[in-house]
Amino acid sequence: MRALGQLLLLLLLAAGAAGGRGAPHDTLACSQGLACRLLDTDVLCGMEPPGPGRGLALARLRLEPALRCTGPMACSPCLEARLRLAVPPGTSEPHRPVPSGIPGAEDSAEGGQWSPTDGASSSQPNVTGLLLLSGHAYASSRCVAVEVRVPLAPTLPGRPLGWVTFRCFEAPLGSELHVTAYTNSHGRRRLSQRQRVPDCSWPAAQAAVPQCQVPRLQVSLRPKEVVVEVQGAVARHSYTLRLYHNQSHGAGGSGRAVTASGPMNYSLPADEVLPCLCLQVWPETQDPPRATLCPFSHDAEAWKRLWARSRLVLHAGGQALTCSLLAPCDLPAELVPCWQPEPAGPCQALPGLQQPAVGQGPQEFGGLRPHPNLCVQVWSGGQVRLTQCLRDRVLPGRADDLLLLEHEGNASLCALERDACVALASFTSMGAGRPGLLERELRRDVAAGQCRQVWHPENGTRVVLWACPLHKYLRGRWALAWMGVLLGAACLLLLLLLKKEDVKGWLKSLRADYGSEGPLRGRRALLVHAAEPAAERAACALMAALHPLGLAVAVAPGGGSGVAAWGPLPWLHAQHRRALRDGDTVILLLSPAAVAAACRWDARARAVPGAGAAFCGPGPRHGPGPDDVPSVAPCEAFAAALSCAVPALAAGNGRYVVARLEALVPAVPPALRAAPAFALPSEMGGFLRALAGPGRRRGRWLEPYVAAVAEGLQRAVGE
Prior knowledge:
Elements: H1 2-19, E1 27-30, E2 35-40, E3 57-71, E4 74-86, E5 126-136, E6 141-151, E7 160-170, E8 176-183, E9 191-196, H2 203-208, E10 216-221, E11 225-231, E12 238-245, E13 255-261, E14 264-269, E15 277-283, E16 291-293, H3 300-308, E17 311-315, E18 321-326, E19 334-339, E20 348-349, E21 355-356, E22 363-365, E23 374-380, E24 383-389, E25 401-407, E26 412-417, E27 420-423, H4 424-430, H5 439-448, E28 452-455, E29 463-469, H6 475-498, H7 501-513, E30 524-528, H8 533-546, E31 552-556, H9 561-566, H10 568-582, E32 585-590, H11 592-605, H12 636-651, E33 655-661, E34 677-680, H13 684-692, H14 696-718
Parallel strand pairs: 30-31, 30-32, 32-33, 33-34
Antiparallel strand pairs: 1-7, 2-6, 3-4, 4-7, 5-6, 5-8, 8-9, 10-11, 11-14, 12-13, 12-15, 15-16, 17-18, 18-22, 19-20, 19-21, 19-23, 23-24, 25-26, 25-29, 26-27, 28-29
């Protein structure tokens, strides 16, 4: 065992003799009164032989950040180890140290270079010890041997001797370093400490470490692209360039990152340049400093591009109006609710309801109930950038409603029109294009709850908005209508008087079949049928029979100025949308061609697989005649009506009635079974009551008309 110790001692001595000069940039310093030299900077720690029983004692280890530099701008971070030494307690008498065998221990001219020993005499007794410092990082390890000579005086035992400073242990930026210090004496004490190597957040590193130098960004605008130039990057060092959308509601929006080595140029299309587009570059180190540039915040073309990509979405599903402003960037804008009675007319801002646009999420106008005439405008820079309305939604209210403003507690009403609120007395006296508008009736309807409250006071706003149905107050139009009816009646009576023989029969028919007042007056219906002879005869018969009852019927497909101007499909969709909006009834007349169209619609939509096999064609007892079979494919208007009606039926919207010609159609297709269906002419009574709507009195008035309408339809189908 003793021989093995001597062998290890010889190996350590050889390492000291061969490498005692230290690394090229390592330095060693001692405090006054100590002499030290660096034996080697790459020894095998833990394999050194034990030294004398009483050597140097370690009192404290301190690590401090430092820089190791080979030039003014070529430094790397490291940790400086500073060790306080002391004489172990119990060392009371001066003695000559046992030779350590390390070259130069007795002669400073050999081996390493001794540091200055001010106040130390060569004849004074001293203690010489071997000090070992090791530094371990994640991917590296290093051990340093230092020889220290301390003069020993009778007053020194147990007291601090001084400091030994080694500069320095190098490791990657921001990594953790574990430094251990100990001596080779018996009963040696180890001192250990962990500390991170400085990263680029250290000001000294930012100015001297090449990896911490942040490049500069230069942007060049070209007609079709933007070139981003990374300047001042150090060659053979990796950098990351990031392009992102800066938004206040998040750390950074969507973007992309590009990694490069050294200086680089990056091009992106001009269409991707928005005001919130920002650039950021940083070196590939831990916690690196970053250079950020947002050069397009005042670019006019970028702002135009941003507004073109922005959308305003209105949500009217609940009791309050909600909207969302969707845009790639934050928009400095204001959301302004407004009232627009006519699609192409001006939209009047509602007082006190505007609010700033905040982020990308939905914003609610609390207390503002949805109405078809309500719109929301986005104002920015004194201009209207976006407008979205609820006009095409199925909502309570009519397009011709009048908006009244009431100051809470004051009971004063005024009409909002043309950026002003006109008092009702002045409004009715001037007419403003609405003759017969009576202030007393408006006040009475508001007090009785006949007008719909669009806005109620909230958040301190003492204003109430009412939407009143304007058609109730248009007395002049009703007077003209009555004059036309009376004139037509007079002409008819004159014609009948010229044929006295027919007067009695006409009066008898009038008493038996029709009354003096149509029970369906004021109601409207849209009749949709397929283009085949039987369906067209039935549609004409129904229209002629229902007209004296006061029901206004529009037939599709049909003629007229609307079809000629728009074409059949746009006209049909417009009529269907109007029927849903105004609460009119949509009558779907089923003939063989209409059933065939419904079967094809079912097959395409795959709504009810296999359910139409039993009725997709005439039954054995109801074979169509030669006149009933269409010679051409059914008109596409009925298929278009199905595409409108079936989704509305599934959602429970609108008033639909299915009329089945029982002589030709045995059953109702599954797609239309959600609506009430009637076999005509046998179920004519239920069909007329469905057109009349709820109300017992109106149902009793319809009984005298059932037989006459059924007889007319039977004659048309029989022909």
